[in-house]
Amino acid sequence: MACVSLTSLMNTIQFEFIQSSPPVILDEDTAHMMNSLYQNLGFLLAFLEEFEKKPGNDDATIKDLEAKIRDFALSAEDGIESNLTNIYMEAEEAAAKDKDMMLCQKLRQVADDTHQFVNRVKREYYDSTVQDSPKVHTVSSELESISLSESSQQFSKPKVEGRMVEHSSFNLLTTNYTAWMNYIIFMVIMLPKNIFNWCVSKLSIWLGESPKPKVEGRMVGHSSELNTIKDQLTRPPSGKRKVISILGMSGIGKTTLARRLYEDPSVISHFGICAWTTVYQEVNLRRVLCDLLQSFSFSSTQVNTNGSTSELAQQLQKCLKCTRYLVVVDDVWETSVWDYLTRCFPESGGSRVLLTTQLKEIADYTATSGTYLHNLHFLDSNESWDLFRNNLFCKQPLPSKFETIGRNIVDKCRGLPLAIVVVAGLVSKLNNTLDDWENVEKEISCLASTDLGEQCSRILNLSYNHLPQHLKACFLYLGVFYENSEIPVKKLVRLWVAEGFVKLVNDKRLEEVGVEYLQDLISRSLVLIHRCKPNGQIKTCRMHNLLHGLCIREARKLNLLYVEDDGYDHVGACRWLSFRSPKPKNYDIIRNNYKKARSLLCLHNDDEMAMVNDPKPVSSSKIPCLVSGLGGSRDYTV
Q: Helix 452-465 and helix 417-428: axis angle, to 10°?
């Protein structure tokens, strides 16, 4: 998408040339030109966002404009970063001077080309309502105050504090202490695992942090199933353990219902041990066993997640033996996985296993009897409206005209909770005008499908399309993580900052702005809170699998994301490379197809941590690797 390439290019220019303590110090004329270039790129970003919002602009025209801006920004950034890399890696002073001049020429060329490109965009896509919008007009006014003709003079050598830079190797780097400290901080993505885990365990004990995830708001609908299953879970012990199955399509609320039961105080007090795991379609038995064992880590039971899969299974069986337990097994897809896990669950009297699945054959296979199988129904019209209202965060009754439109919008969701909350998140960000609500109603009406799954997917796409450009980039980036994974917010925000998606706002730190971006996505129901800190701040988040699938699909369309082992082989065209193992299986292929890559992340299961998605820095002699930190980021060949 154009937003990703534009923000990346703007971040390159801002970080390398025009921030308060840049690595590259330019003379006054060149710095003026870089400011002009930055403003031109800002104009393109604002123009594109307003152009997308303008009613009447068809999708083909918008995509055409996006493609042109994206390709232009990618080409410009490749040229600048190629010259920067040559300078940083050059050890010979004479050659370094030549490369300095080549960088200067490239900067002038990019600035001139951008000025011409902006004028071409104005001619080809001119729209007075877009160009006169406050956002675009503000950027245009700033551009008028900068004369590009002044910047087209012959470049002089870059200077540091008024003198020529003559030293070799790092001839464009300043000796500024803050800049060097930032470089060091950028390299520190995470502490070593043993130190990190020790700190987390000590802080958790000291702060009294609860190990249970926190879920905001109240559940709407499925109250009869909630009460029935709660009774089945907590009724007086008799005979062997019981298996209770919850069946339903994706997005209907199976996991939400199971989570409510798992966190219910009366349920918790009834069992000696409670544990939770999510299986997923791509089964990793070792991770599943570790999840269950780590659920005991805050109880008196001592667990060790080292060892083979069979040793973990034996340890799990030993922990559950001679105690009344509740185990939740979420999202089961294969009977073979269930057969393996049930061997770890002793026949302790009064114990319960709560299972969720989308497949009826799994539910029939696992349920103890017909009375222990619950097929979730869709929400009725009143439940759907209540859920919509709750996610609008609207305490006052809606005016009658708004309610009529709102109910029409909700009816199109056909009782599917995920679709309802996502649409509510979209509507909550609109201006409170009838026109805006009616436009959403018309858009959803055009998405009608006889297939409910397809209808839901179209509604999710609609919500994505309504995101501002900067949030689109942040949303798509979530595709680098595992499906249904627990994502540490601190690391996620730092990665967003490193990619250049987060922009300075007044005197706020970038991390603060990044957290605000995340909260915006949460308020739109595109991201879910998973765990919170004792002070109420978000610790980890996750995504619904349908929304994660949307991330992957959209990122692939735009040649942004490559995920290892997902069957997508266009490595060379992608900017974000995400791997599931410490040493990628197709590493040799990647080394020779890295031309467009800007970030390489290895996200693999960490046996010692409950949060399995942890960015590991990986270096290669050829692949540009993401270097992230507190104050900014850049991509270097290391």
A: 20
The 3 state secondary structure assigned to 560-580 is: CEEECCCCCCCHHHCCEEEEC
pLDDT at 175: 32
Helix (H) or strand (E) holding 618: none
Which 8-state DSSP code applies to residue 354? E
Of 50-59, 152-161, 486-495, least confident by mean pLDDT is 152-161
Integer Cα distance of 303 and 322 in angstroms = 16
- Does 287 score more than 80 pLDDT? yes
* Same domain assignment for residues 244 and 308: yes
In this structure, is residue 190 part of a structural domain? no
User: Which of 456, 258, 483, 217 shows the shortest CA–CA distance to 376?
Assistant: 258
Give the three-class secondary structure for 278.
Answer: strand
Structural domain range at position 420: 381-465
| Rounded Cα gap, residues 114 and 467, in angstroms | 26
Q: How many residues does the chain have?
A: 638
The phi and psi torsions of 250 (rounded to 5 degrees) equal -65, 135
The pTM (predicted TM-score) of the whole model is: 0.72
Are 279 and 154 found together in one domain?
Answer: no
Scan for tokens 């840049």, then name that residue.
22
Tokens 């009297």 — which residue?
Answer: 349
Q: What is the pLDDT of residues 374-402, one digit of tens each?
A: 999 999 999 999 999 888 867 678 889 99
Question: Does residue 315 sit in the same domain as residue 395?
Answer: no
Query: Which amino acid, 436?
Result: D
- For residues 534 and 605, membership in a common domain is answered with yes
Q: Are residues 231 and 347 in the same domain?
A: yes
Residue 125 has pLDDT above 90, yes or no: no
Whether the Cβ atoms of residue 330 and residue 277 lie closer than 8 Å to each other? yes
Q: For residue 380, which amino acid is it?
A: D
Reduce the secondary structure of 61-118 to three states and give it as a string. HHHHHHHHHHHHHHHHHHHHHHHHHHHHHCCCHHHHHHHHHHHHHHHHHHHHHHHHHH
Cα 21 to Cα 95: distance, rounded to the nearest angstrom: 26
Judge if 433 and 565 occupy the same domain.
Answer: no
pLDDT band for position 222 (cuts 50, 70, 90): confident
User: Is 283 in contact with 334 (CB distance < 8 Å)?
Assistant: yes
Calpha distance 638→623 (Å, rounded): 8
Strands 599-602 and 576-579, how do they pair? parallel
Q: Checking phi first, is residue 397 left (phi over 0); if not, alpha (psi -120 to 50) or beta? A: beta
Three-class DSSP category at 206: helix
Rounded Cα–Cα distance for residues 33 and 522 (Å)? 39
Mean local confidence (pLDDT), 458-475: 89
Half-sphere exposure at residue 297, Cβ-oriented, CA atoms within 13 angstroms: 22
Confidence of residue 231 (pLDDT cuts 50, 70, 90): very high
Residue 16: DSSP 8-state: I
Degrees (nearest 5) of the Cα angle 292, 297, 302? 100
pLDDT for residue 241: 85
CATH number (domain holding residue 432): 1.10.8
Instruction: Give the span between the Cα atoms of 291 and 610, in whole angstroms.
Output: 7
Map residue 547 onto helix, strand or coil.
helix
Judged against a pLDDT cut of 60, whether residue 445 lies above it is answered with yes
Q: Is the pLDDT of residue 217 over 60?
A: no
Per-residue pLDDT reduced to its tens digit, 271-282: 988 999 988 887
**361: closest CA among 339, 333, 329, 341?**
333
